[in-house]
Write a structure and sequence with these properties.
Layout: E1 6-7, E2 10-11, E3 14-21, E4 24-29, E5 35-37, E6 42-45, H1 63-69, E7 116-122, E8 125-130, H2 131-135, E9 141-146, E10 149-155, E11 161-166, E12 175-178, H3 179-185, E13 190-191
Parallel strand pairs: 8-13
Antiparallel strand pairs: 1-2, 3-4, 4-5, 5-6, 7-8, 7-12, 9-10, 10-11
């Protein structure tokens, strides 16, 4: 997920708080120490409580594909001045672990709790697109209305999502998430079923 750091007249800087809300990590801003929920896209505690973040479109791709299209790209160095091994993923086995590590409340039974989904929200309306169902649409574009938004999902020949946009081609903010997390923050979400639209 990508959000603008601008909140009102201030540009915030963020860190990871180490706290969870509905089993999703909370960020904090260095300026006020308010806590921010990524999937709720707003502050849940502190001076900015209730303040919304502005979602920004982003692309999830391979380095090879990105570099081919943008050869001038600079890469963030892992030489940060801190003693941390950035090659180690602290959650490496989480996707394969049988259960949830932290409580999230009741999980709807539409999908397996750890099913990977592409989530798109438009106001109070939301839709989850299970990644395994999208892979069945390899090489195609899917058009679907979510609230007031006409979304287009482009699935590459290998079954990976290569673009999410409005019907006029403008990038559309979206998130890749586990089902348990997406439905916790969007309890009324629809679930994409091929042929049912």
């Amino acid at each position: 997920m990508v959000h603008s750091r601008r909140v009102g007249d201030e540009t915030l800087t963020f860190g990871v708080s180490g706290r969870l809300y509905k089993s999703n990590v909370l960020l904090y801003d260095h300026q006020s120490e308010s806590l921010w929920s990524q999937l709720l896209e707003s502050s849940v505690a502190g001076r900015y409580a209730g303040t919304r973040l502005v979602a920004m479109p982003a692309v999830r791709t391979t380095w090879k594909s990105w570099q081919r299209r943008h050869p001038e790209t600079l890469v963030l160095s892992t030489e940060t001045g801190y003693r941390r091994d950035y090659a180690t993923d602290p959650y490496a086995g989480y996707a394969r672990a049988g259960g949830l590590w932290f409580p999230v409340g009741k999980v709807r039974g539409d999908l397996s709790p750890k099913a990977r989904v592409l989530g798109i929200a438009s106001g109070d309306d939301a839709m989850a697109f299970p990644m395994d169902r999208l892979r069945g649409s390899a090489g195609r574009q899917l058009s679907i209305r979510i609230g007031s938004v006409d979304a287009v999902i482009t699935v590459g020949p290998g079954g990976d999502v290569v673009a999410v946009s409005h019907d006029d081609g403008r990038p559309l903010p979206h998130v890749f998430s586990y089902w348990f997390a997406w439905q916790a923050f969007h309890p009324g979400t629809g679930v994409y079923r091929p042929g049912a639209q």
